[in-house]
Write a structure and sequence with these properties.
mainly alpha; single chain; 152 residues; 6 helices
Amino acid sequence: MLRKLLAVVVGYVLLAGVLMVAFTGTAIMLGLDGVYKPGLYEPATSWIMLSFVYGMLAAIAGGYVCRWIGRSRQLLHAFAGVVLLLGIVSAVVAYTSAKDPGPRLPGETLTEAVRKTNQPLWVALLNPLVGAVGVLVGGTLRRDPPQPDRSA
């Protein structure tokens, strides 16, 4: 049981860590004008597409590690369900608490802009699905080791 819990926790931490590093590094490289539409807090289309790519890659890594540690296909399905559920809850919370931040001000820092970002609802709802599919894909890349034959 502890191994299965560890597998899900490590898989999720890896998924979140890969996303954090990828998004932070890309945002620093692109700057505000590469991340957002001009004068707005709405993510640029290129940023949205990158979010799906990064989400898929991070979820594949998380699913692979979850399967490697947990050694269970059923656990992998549970992990995908956790990713989907947490993602949908996060999207609903973000959408219901979103406020119109107004126009993006010149000279604003990336950190300030991120706090005011209003992600489109369709993106917020599609990201958890991408994550769940990525977890399943990643888990199928990892094969369980053969179990010893104990019938003899």
